[in-house]
Amino acid sequence: MIPRLPYGGRLLAGVCLTALGFVGADAWLSAGSSATSQPKRALAQPDKGKGADAEETHGALAMDQQLERLATMLGDPKSVVAPPGVSPTFFATLVPKESPGTAAQVALGRKLFFEKRLSRDGTVACATCHDVSRGFTDQRPLFEGVGGQVGRRNSPTVLNALFFHTQFWDGRARTLEDQAKLPIVNPIEMGQPTPEAAVASIAGDQEYQREFRTAFGHEVTYEGIASALASFERTLVFLDAPFDRFLAGDVKAISDEAREGWALFNGKARCVSCHQLNSSNPIGTDNRFHNIGVSARHQDFEELAKRALKTLAEDDSSEKQDKLAIESDLSELGRFVVTKNRADVGAFKTEQIRNVGISPPYMHDGSLGTLWDVMDHYNKGGEANPYLDGGIEPLALSEAEIDSVVAFMFSLTDDRLREQNEAQLTRQRQLASSKRPFRDDSLASRKVYPFERRLQTGR
Ligand code: HEC
Ligand code: HEC
After folding, report:
1. Going by CA atoms, what residue is nearest to atom 10 of ligand 2?
2. Inter-CA distances, 260 with 36, 267, 395, 454, 456, Å
């Protein structure tokens, strides 16, 4: 089920977005094909030799401590209901009828999310990569799964993921239920050989037997695991930020700089053309897919697309798409792997910008370390490539303007995560003060144009 109904909540009501003449972000530039070399990314790293009892695989906070922190943010597990300020009618469209999320289902999902036994070797839980103490991500460029294997994609946050119309960077899963079934059996995430093996890993546990009977009226099943996990994730609503108090009329809730950033976001910086943050889009995404050039730095898209079409002609199942996205160099094709549509080459889902300060590094490949790097990427007009979204062009933002948009983004973190947000702001500011690898003033200020640059330098 894909929720498409309008959002009628009071949250963000009264936001008056600047009238925008440039919102049409659908024009696609087309030019010759780019011929750059293939990246050499390690597909897998040798096992780092962690024992099954390691509490902190890949640097995650111990599961019991994560659960404690979560309890301070959420209290006891409650049934899935529309949060304050979100229209119940809209919210109902986000919850599949067959997975309503009773309090017992949510409680079960909250336990399963931290359950390492769901992985092949008992070392990796959902919360290894979606760690409560690290913005519900792993804060690594690329994820690490069972046996220390490194994947192709960055772990996004699960906070507010319930609001997306599709799941994953390429939208290949439609619901949170469909999504939850994939990492458990993906060979390099949690590595279970089959859904049955995942069920068997917990089905002998009498507590789980009892909890499944209470929640679903039957024994442990894979559907039940996915439904419980999704129900738990529908309670991860984190939309209570200083920015929301600002919109509600408390002008001083965010700094002058952040207010200036909000104006730029809606104006000169053009962010709002894709990151629509308004009453219908509380998390700041248009739920669409765009090539903003992140994956264009090293790709020969045509060669990749040719190989993808050949592979998918043999097997176009959801498991196959998952493997290509997670483990193969075809990952960089993004949405194309799902749709095989030319316009989707190198296109990824517009990421939400809620709580964005605490989920570095950024983008589907984790290639941008700080929000300043993100601004540098956009300011120079992304990376030129034949499939670049027409909404991406040099912005000519000054340093002060970049700082303002960054300050605005740091005002979008929920109060329950304020400490993480402040620590990240300090950390990222420090990093950015010594290193701005994506900054290119001559492109940003349009002294040269991306197209010219590409013809002159071949990149
Ligand atoms: C080994 C690391 C790892 C584990 C374990 C893991 N994930 Fe993820 N998760 C990722 C990565 C990487 C992505 C993005 C993959 C992609 O888009 O291709 C992701 C994406 C997601 C998304 C989509 C969010 C969005 O913005 O589209 C959700 C929801 C999610 N994971 C929930 C879970 C759940 C539930 C579990 C446990 C069953 C889990 N994850 C286990 C790494 C992990
Ligand atoms: C043409 C559409 C478009 C425009 C315009 C746009 N974005 Fe994005 N944004 C995206 C897409 C698509 C992604 C994911 C791209 C990827 O991972 O390859 C993204 C990702 C991001 C991320 C990374 C989030 C994360 O958790 O990794 C941030 C931050 C962001 N955008 C902020 C901005 C800001 C600030 C602006 C304005 C300067 C802006 N965006 C303009 C489409 C857009």
Report:
1. 350
2. 39, 10, 16, 33, 36
Note the pLDDT tens digit of each residue in 112-124: 999 999 999 999 9
Q: Please classify residue 344 by burial: count the beta carbons closer than 10 Å to its beta carbon, then call 0-12 exposed, 13-18 middle and 19+ buried.
A: buried
Å from CA of 383 to ligand 2 middle: 13
CB-ligand 1 contact for 126 (6 Å cutoff): yes
pLDDT value at position 398? Answer: 97
Predicted pLDDT of residue 459: 62
DSSP designation for 61: P
- How confident is the model at residue 55, as a pLDDT? 55
Residues with a CB atom less than 6 Å from ligand 2: 25, 169, 269-271, 273-275, 290, 292, 294-295, 348, 350-351, 353, 356, 359, 362-364, 371, 374, 378, 389, 391-392, 405
Q: Over the stretch 35-63, which tens digit does the pLDDT of each residue have?
A: 333 333 333 333 334 444 345 788 999 99
pLDDT-derived band of residue 141, with 50, 70 and 90 as boundaries?
Answer: very high
Nearest to 36 by CA among 329, 334, 443: 329
Task: Using the atom order of ligand 2, give the atom closest to the CA of residue 156.
Answer: 26
Amino acid at the residue 222: Y
211 is catalytic: no
In ligand 1, which atom is closest to the CA atom of 144?
1
Neighbours of 129 (CB within 10 A): 27
Which residue's CA is the nearest one to ligand 1's atom 37?
A: 126
Per the DSSP assignment, residues forming a β-bridge with 150 are: 144
pLDDT value at residue 457: 72
Say if residue 19's pLDDT is above 60. no
- DSSP bridge partners of 278: 281
pLDDT at residue 29, as a whole number: 25
Question: How far is the C-alpha of 320 from the C-alpha of 220, rounded, in Å?
Answer: 26
**Structural domains of the chain sorted by starting position, each given as residue range(s) with its CATH number in brackets:** 57-233 (1.10.760.10), 242-299+346-457 (1.10.760.10)
Helix pair angle (222-233, 206-216), 10° resolution: 70
**What does the pLDDT read at residue 35?**
32
Q: Which of 115, 189, 233, 327 is catalytic?
A: 189
Ligand 1 lined by 57 (C-beta under 6 Å):
no
pLDDT over 90 (residue 126)? yes
Q: What is the pTM of this model?
A: 0.89
Peptide bond into 361 cis (omega under 30): yes
Cross-strand pairs, 173: 167
